[in-house]
Design brief:
Layout lengths: L1 E6 L6 H6 L3 H7 L2 E6 L19 H8 L6 E5 L1 H12 L6 E5 L12 H8 L8 H12 L4 H8 L9 H4 L6 E6 L9 H6 L4 E5 L11 H12 L1
Parallel strand pairs: 1-2, 1-3, 3-4, 4-5, 5-6
Helix pairs in contact: 3-4, 5-7
Amino acid sequence: MKQVALVHGWGGSYAATWATDGWDTALHAAGFEPVGVNISGHGPEGGSHQPTDYADLAADLASKLPDGLHGAIGFSLGTKLLLELETRSPGANGRLVLGGIGDNLFAPEAAGPAIVAALRGATTDHPPQVEALLAYAQKSGSDPACLAAVLERPANPVLTEDRLGAAIAPILIFNSRDDALAQPDDRLRAALPYAEHQLIEGPGHVALTSDARFRDAAIAFLTN
């Protein structure tokens, strides 16, 4: 059975993001074997509270992925890490479905400091974007101190148009027009001119993985 990895976003986990939203069931039904992984510092297993221990999240992810993947599906931070791995080993992870990512790929996490302050109890009044990410993180059962350390890590991955030029994998970029974190995505699309692109109305950022249109498009792309 063809294996497909599922890589969640910051604050999430495989169980809270993909399994809860029915992705593993849908992939099995389509003839794929889902491979669920947690980004370092995420999930109930916890991790280090030291930001420097997250200095290469992509390498840590690579150590958890089996060889010979048919493809991989990422969301938000997960898509950044999959693209980093693609630049290091072009084509190694098969077909790539990249959700919840746009021109924010080329910049630091803008909401990072506000989220860190909230995780450490320094603030209680949060803008909607931060509140949504905190709610997403709470569902994963992750240690808030681990999640704060991930946000405070040395900048990585750092991707540029030149580095993305090494990518050879078939790629689908799938976004919501109402995603304030990932939109616009024109610069990313220009850097990956051969990638397919779908933009839907509605779910915004955090809710993208629960939208059946994303799931159906991902499976169709992996089946081609």
